[in-house]
Amino acid sequence: MSQTRERILTIARELFARHGYSGTTNADIARELGTTTAALYYHFPSKAAILDGLVAEPLAAYRRIIECLKTGPPAPPELLGAFIDLAADSRELAALIDREPSVLAAIDKRLPLAFEGMIQQVIVALAGPDPDRAAILRAHAAFAAIKHATMAAIALNHGTLDPADRAEILRTALRILQPGAGD
Questions:
Q1: pLDDT in tens, 69-89
Q2: pTM for the complete prediction?
Q3: Distance between CA atoms of 40 and 53, rounded to whole angstroms?
Q4: Is the per-residue pLDDT at 8 higher than 90?
Q5: What is the SS3 assignment for the chain?
């Protein structure tokens, strides 16, 4: 990828995080880049194309997870670890996705399985075969914990995920899945 394209994506990521996707225009991105909107269009034909560039790697990770789910339920450490890594790698986009449903809708259009459908499959895989109500609740709790704990660990470590923190998050999520873990 060219340095200019990479710089455009960096600027767009920062502006989207600060002002939201809908609150940022191509003119804003071009101005921050120090160029014209026409020059920006040379690299990206639209704001949606810029968003596509920003979400390309997270989408590839989601697709890998979906493929893994299709081949049979993956082991919880593998599945939870994939989501910890995804949360760490796409941390700048996480707030944008949480804040703007239009961004999640744009991502859903690019996935072979809608995000909510994928989450349901993740919960089923984490809850195990023939789960009772408690196992389903533990699966939801473990899945929720990895995202929030990963974001907290990144914030505590000034923007990066320390391997020891990743291991602790995974251990904690796996303990949540165990019956009687909170007793």
A1: 888 889 999 999 999 999 998
A2: 0.81
A3: 14
A4: yes
A5: CCHHHHHHHHHHHHHHHHHCCCCCCHHHHHHHHCCCHHHHHHHCCCHHHHHHHHHHHHHHHHHHHHHHHHCCCCCHHHHHHHHHHHHHHCHHHHHHHHHCHHHHHHHHHHCCCCHHHHHHHHHHHHHCCCCCHHHHHHHHHHHHHHHHHHHHHHHHCCCCCCHHHHHHHHHHHHHHHCCCCCC
